[in-house]
Design brief:
The protein is globular and about 60 Å long. Helices cover 33% and strands 18% of the residues. Helix 3 runs antiparallel to helix 4, helix 4 runs antiparallel to helix 6 and helix 14 packs across helix 18. Strands 3-4-23-22-18-17-12-11 form an eight-stranded antiparallel β-sheet. The chain folds into two domains: 308 residues, no CATH class; 210 residues, Glutamine Phosphoribosylpyrophosphate, subunit 1, domain 1, CATH 3.60.20. By secondary structure, it is of the alpha+beta class. 59% of the residues are buried. Bound molecules: glutamic acid (GLU). The site of glutamic acid has 14 residues, from loops. Glutamic acid binds next to loops. Keywords: Acyltransferase, Glutathione biosynthesis, Hydrolase, Transferase, Zymogen. This is Glutathione hydrolase proenzyme. This enzyme consists of two polypeptide chains, which are synthesized in precursor form from a single polypeptide.
Length: 594
Amino acid sequence: MPQFQRTNLGILAALAVAGVLVFTVTGGPRDRATAGITPTATATTAHTPAGAVVATSAMVAAANPLAAEAGRVVLAAGGSAADAAVAVQMMLNLVEPQSSGIGGGAFAVIWDPAEGRLTTLDGRETAPMAADDTYWLDEDGAPLAWWDAVVGGRSVGVPGTLKLLETLHAHHGRLAWPDLLKPAIETAETGFAMSPRLAASIAAAQDKKLDLFEATRAYFFNADGTPKTAGTVLRNPVFADTLRLIGRHGSAPFYEGEIAADIVAAVRTNINPGILTPEDLAAYTVVERAPVCVPYRAYEVCGMGPPSSGALTVGQILGMLAGFDMPGLGPSPEAWHLYAEAAKLAYADRALYMADSDFVAMPTRGLVDPAYLADRATLIDPAAAMATPAEAGTPPWDEAARLAPDTQPERPGTSHFVIVDADGLMISMTTTIETGFGSRVMTRGFLLNNELTDFSRAPEAGDGTPIANRVEGGKRPRSSMSPTIVFRDGTPVLLIGSPGGSRIIHYVANALVAILDWGMDPQAALDMGHVVNRNGPTELEEGTEAETLAGALSALGHEITVRPHVSGLHAIQIRDGRLIGAADPRREGVALGE
Ligand code: GLU
């Protein structure tokens, strides 16, 4: 098992010192998974020997203890999972501002037991209507370099997270909307102790122009220009005011009123200005979409379809593995070889076909057609690695509108949370402002996303073929976010998801294989070292048991790289009438239950 030096106890202690949160902490400092962290108020919460958090009624797992606690309090007060999602997201915006918030976008997968219905909400950011495929080109027609594109208003898409939360609450909320914002408002006013991860993120982003914009600099840096450090108490009264306004009037001021005006002004900043208009904000809609579900052995793995590539790529990997005896092989080099080979083929299809299907013709169903995937799987040789890049296949499709592949990487800076309430309403939500600290532009106490860099910056391939994921007015950039709910015999058995850019797909698929095929407990599956292949080298997670695969995989012909894989998986398994929660040891999150 990996030995993660970073511990969650430091942050909990810091929070307690700030008087913000009181936890009872038991166990050694080595590893949260075995240390045991129990909030005092949850008498029915217990820990299994493996370290997972077990509850009987309701549960939340999120990337920061204050955010998870905000959700737990809502659930304990009789709130629904949707109510808790509002409280969790608003608190995440405050305490993990580098990763998500109302300045960004999100996808939620929702299981409604009352209606026996699974649906998804697409709160992805959109490009301004006036954007076209020259958006990311400089005067010479060359695509802008990554950081040149990220920093400033030009990368900001119309945010969708607030409207998504409002939609969730309108359909499934039980408590009053303003009350759900109170925990974040109070914490913004009294202050919270900055977590080690937030402090480290600020320090790391300083030379990535985090201190370029005045509001951002004033909030994250000291007067002498040094980054604020862990334990510093941060207050954000401006954000509290923003939330109060949203508490009173819902999302209206954000999309059409005074907050909208400030967003537009901030985006049209003089550094790398954007072209977002008030009309773009006013026109924003959250789209309810059918989930993408893929059968895998006895299970149905369901998640977010286009504009995310998440569920389709996870589904392709699993669909190709379905013909191999993964359960029998266990977590062996042979099994990881098959996994990496399936991943190469899946990422080839992802690059060529996947984008916002409202704008681009896409073989959505064909990509996860079982016969197609079985056929693709015949390209996998159990005895030898295929050369990379593997080529995309030709899924069954009426329209042969083949475009050119997108080769763009994405950068980390996102959050995933999972919630189950006492009535069995379940939400698996991945939420983002794209890279850490997004565009760096801050207004009204929150950061604005840089999601438009998730589009291909080049509009076409060298031969002039348009790229599916090119910029178009009103389009949503392709995502990798993979909020997932797994079913067995029509009943949900697992909620999971992660941040991590285009590696999200692997963090989720690794854990699914570990839990569904190898019978690992969710916490063990999240602790497990990651194996990633994005149609190139096979990447093994540094400092974990995954590194020991290097020799055997090299012998099979894999090009190996070893690197950190900072996932942020959060999961809840539903087993024998109990909720088993797990939080990624690589971040600061916890699972809390009732
Ligand atoms: N912007 C990325 C996406 O939507 C997520 C970035 C991340 O996870 O860090 O796929």
